[in-house]
Structures are given as C-alpha cells and as structure tokens.
Amino acid sequence: MSDTDRLGDDKVVGILDRAARGINPVLDLAMTDPFGIKGRTFVPTQEERSAAEAVLDGIAWVLDTIQFPGTASWEKANDEERARWWVTRIGALNTIAVAFPGMFGVLLNRLPIRDLLGFANQALVLVAVAREHGVTERAEQVDLLASVLCRREIDARTVSADGDESGPVVTESSWRPFALIGVLWRTARTLRALTTELDQRPGPGRTSSLLGNVPVIGVVAAYLGERGALARAAQQGEQWIGSRAALTPGLRRVR
Residue 156's Cα: distance from chain center in Å? Predict the structure, then answer.
C-alpha cells in the first residue's frame, strides 16, 4: 500500500473517535446493576430464602467468581487485574466471533471480515484496558488506538477531525445482557472506512494465517492466532500508557 492510498490523520482520528464514542457507554453500562444481582455479592447469603432468591444468589456467585465488573471481587482487584480481565474474559469471548469466518476457510478469508472484526475487538479491549489505567479522556483513547492499531503517533486534540457525529450511540435503554458482545459488531461497522489501516494492527502469526485458509480447522487456528494478537495489542497499549504516565498528570502508571 502506497502512502497516497492511506487515509489522512484527520480521517483516522474522526473514525477512531466515533468508535471510542460507541465503546465507552457500553463499558459504563457493564458496571450497572439494574436487577440488584451484583449487589448480592457484597452481603452474606441469607440462610432462609426462596427458590427465586437462591437462583439470583447463584447467578451472583458466578459473576463474582469471574470477577465481573461491579461485583465484590471486582472491587478488590487492582488496576492490572481489571485490565487483564478485559483481555482474558471479554476479549476471549469476542474472539470467537472474530475467528468464525475461518470455518469457511479461504472462501471468506479473501474478504476483510476477520481483519475488520479483529480490529474492532482490539479497539474495544484497548479502550477498556486504558480506562482501568486512568485513560478516560476520549482524545487520549484515540491517540492510543491510532498508535497501536494504525501505527500512527497522533495528537487527536490538535488534528482536525471530520466532525461527523454519526456512529453507534448506546443508551441505558438499549442495554442487553450481551451488550459487550454486540458492541463488537457496531464498532466494526464504524471502522469499515479504515480498510487501508486494517493490516497495521497486531495480527495473527504466519502459521495461524495459513491454517486459517483451511475449512473447519481454520476457525481453531484463527481463534488461537487472534487471541495471541489481542494479547500483543493489549501489551503494546499498556506500554503506550506507561510511556505517557510520566508526561500526563493524573495518569496511572502501568507496573
């Protein structure tokens, strides 16, 4: 790809900004507890309870065991443990969707579907990891995404974005139990305009890419390859945050 084919920094900032704008509200909603289930993890289980309460307590126990955001175990976790959770839990779950086109081998691998979903998955996890380390301003999140996923060092505050406010907007009324998975697809739609940037992200290794062209077993190879790529993206993101911590007051350093 020649330099003339690449999008300008202003376009990249505009697209990544819309992606971050759609991701952040869903991550906020992950902390909510509309049915009071996560709140049960903070209080002792009652000895006398109805069958319905026992079911709710069981669900609360599962959420607490996996350290779901908003539970008692989540509150006890440190920044590094919370950041790792997004990579190992939600990232791993979303990677199933990313790897699924590998079921059809080279037939779908010729299309940028997996790269687009992989890009979106890494963007989602990077924003989540950034928030756990104190990077909550959207402009800084855009700088992070541009650095790790597009190999561009950009200052989103000074770059003139396209100003397009269209894109996924998530409100509390649209919350569903699988919203953290659903945002992957909405983010992918937002990022479609970044087709010339998809190959810049941390990607699967050569062996995984080759095996991904084989029908059926390609989905396993794709999953393992994308999991490794996601881990590298998260590591690079934390390195970026660590390098910025000394320059940005209030930004927590990654240990």
Answer: 20
